[in-house]
Amino acid sequence: MSTEIKVPALPESVSDATIATWHKKEGDSIRRDENLVDLETDKVVLEVPAPVSGIIKSIKYQQGDTVKADDVLGIMEQQEVEEEAKAETSDAAEPPQADQSDTDNSADSKNDDQDEDQDKQSGSKGGAPSPSARKLAADNDVDTSAVSGSGRGGRITKPDVQQFMQSAGERPEERVKMSRLRNRIAERMKEAQNTAAILTSFNEVDLQAVSDMRSRYKDLFAETHDVRLGFMSFFVRACCVALQRHPIVNASVEGDEIVYHGYQDIGVAVSIERGLVVPVLRNAHLLSLAEIEKQIRNYAKKAHDGSLAMEDLQGGTFTVTNGGVFGSLLSTPLLNPPQSAILGMHTIKQRPVVIDGEITVRPMMYIALSYDHRIIDGKDAVQFLVTVKELLEDPARLLLDI
Asked: Is 117 labeled as catalytic in the residue annotation?
């Protein structure tokens, strides 16, 4: 019995998807609920499982094609896969039969090899090399099959060999279509630049107190909460407090109105092979450090597994991004529309600083706040950064709410 393989219902606000990967080809067997094809949307990858066990009879859309909900991706012929697997095993056990034509036509094969050798000498990318080109290639151990000819009929000339030698061989290029995620990232980043008046302010943070607290309690924290104590939870918590004290930084623009959000939904940028995704910590201002760390860990795992849901990525009133994990010392992060601000974390460096009139070495980090200058003034941005700095340099304030 034939069964259609259909595109499942797509997430809200998603109109179509792109075929990312077929895990089976026509003629392959597959068990029910085994992942058959991946569909890529603007943000997430949807797995389409096999509706029944059987054989892939036909595939109607190929990798890179755009499909919509309920489109028929292919047809399956339902049957017991286990029996098919046994049949394939028995077929594989039979010794291969000698091909009579292989032995009867040995002379022809020899001639073909000679023709192939002659083709290589003549240059597979064009005609035969000219005498001067052949001599120059032989003197310099250049394979003329790798040289493109510019002469009549593709004939390889002496200048062709010289240019090949100067360029140390060919310079390959590859043209690859952007993925749906990369295309969406490009659109949103350009939208941010075209719409908002983006300005960036900087400050630096002495992370000695946070580092000492992590070193002192990391083992007990991990034992108690079953999650590692990182720096990100301190930054998220500090941002929540700073956003409460400076609510304009947590606001957004809609038309000619400013929308003030009485909650803090913090987006945490996660870099994966496909690009950058920003899952959202809902009501982050109500979460403990352990709860923040657990949610970040779960989102990171889902991001790398390709199992993030659309609702994990929607919304958000403010974003924190950490370029420091890649070694970035300083950057100007771009806004994540419709948000009006984003905090950039950077790498921690041991630097000499003056404390109480004495030079000492401390773990320092530059932080950057990019913001929409249409609604956020420089004073608001600077005061926000100063608040984050003060909270991180004296993390007891995060616990005492002062």
From this structure: no
